[in-house]
Amino acid sequence: MKEKIHALTEEMLENMGRLVAIDSQLGTPEEGKPFGEGPAKALEEGLKIAEELGFKTVNLDNYCGYAEMGEGEEIIGIAGHLDIVPVGGDWNYDPFKLTRDGDYVYGRGTTDDKGPVIEALYAMKLLRDSGIKMNKRVRLIMGCNEENGSKCMEHYNEVAEELSCGFTPDASYPCIHGEKGHMAMMAYSKNTKIISMNGGFVSNAGCDTCTTLGVNAAGVTCECLEKAGFEDDFVKFYNTHIGTACDGAGVGLKIADQYGDLTFCNGIVKTEDGVISCTIDIRVPVTLKAEDVRKMCEDKLEDENGRIEILEIGDPLFYPRESPLVNALYKAYVDVTGDTENEPMVIGGGTYAKSLKNIIAFGPEKVGMDYRIHGADEFILVSEMEETVLIYMEAIKNLLAI
């Protein structure tokens, strides 16, 4: 089978290049194109490639679409996405032209997530062409809004059938059996003598620089102000409720389970109309429910110096390590790679697995490798592409047997 996959390498790269060539960043919504021109064009091209390979395809109102094979009531779902993050950065290669340099292939979306969509599609093709009997349908879903809220999968859930089991090829190997719950908060000053405090650029990364009273400081600016003898209500509130520990202790959320700690990040600080606000991004341990976390902190979010408002809180995703879905995918990875050192893991990020029932994230990134997925010169390795096709073939066979 490895030889058959290798023989298709150039064809796979050519089709991947067709997708990479399309700038599918979130655009301005228009009639029939909920995420703008680019994502709709990428979906059209993705479904066209699937049709050329002999699959039945369906476009679900340009929110997402799918390619399908097999018969039966149950559906094995593979959910990838064709939208991309902005190009940004200082690229050495054209982000919208697939460029090969030895084993490396560069372009925006090669690993996140256009390349994996192609890998899954060819895994389906090779299984179909091998004549394998399928007691379930296998459906490759191509989403168009993963990077900006996964509204594509909300639409899928409204208009299409529920999946019986499956995976999203949009994370790491060996497989992801848990994703921490996401919780968003905003902290606000009540009274402050600070004229201006501004810093950070995104809510889910640590505040890299912060300018206060004309002094540029890192994320410890409030701690420094207090140590410098600057007495201020909001500085007190920040230091007691947020601080620099990143563990949520200040609001009663220093908690952990066997799979990891709660993490607490103040990403953006800004001043508007005399009020300082701070974004707070929290990742909740996978075995804790949203309402449990809310109860732990809700009476610790306000005092005379400031307040914290809960904007949203979502349940984590968690499948026990011994569950049939986790075992089926992990076995496929181990059987192909021989790697038994890396175990199924939990992550702080979120994937389509939180939007669709009965799936978890599975590959294609190898642990410890930086594929620059949201940076300049994003790449995929041809050798890993070929291996992933084989892993996904084995995964589908294992899921057919569940």
Instruction: Give the count of helical stretches.
Output: 10
Strand content: 25-35%
Spatial extent as radius of gyration: 23 Å
The poorly predicted ranges are 214-219
Number of strands: 24
Principal-axes geometry comes out as elongated
Question: How would you write the strand order of the largest sheet?
Answer: 1-2-6-3-7-22
For the largest beta-sheet, the strand count, sense and barrel status come to: 6 strands, mixed
Helical coverage, percent range: 25-40%
Question: What characteristics describe this protein?
Answer:
402 residues; 5-stranded antiparallel beta sheet
Topology:
Blueprint: H1 2-7, H2 9-20, H3 37-52, E1 56-60, E2 64-69, E3 75-81, E4 99-101, E5 104-106, H4 114-129, E6 137-143, H5 151-159, E7 165-168, E8 171-172, E9 176-179, E10 181-189, E11 197-199, E12 210-212, E13 215-217, H6 221-227, H7 233-241, E14 256-257, E15 260-261, E16 263-272, E17 275-284, H8 290-297, E18 302-303, E19 306-313, E20 317-318, H9 324-337, E21 345-347, E22 359-361, E23 364-365, E24 379-381, H10 382-400
Parallel strand pairs: 3-6, 3-7, 7-22, 8-23, 9-21
Antiparallel strand pairs: 1-2, 2-6, 4-5, 5-24, 9-20, 10-17, 10-19, 11-12, 12-13, 14-15, 16-17, 18-19
Helix pairs in contact: 2-4, 4-10, 6-7, 9-10
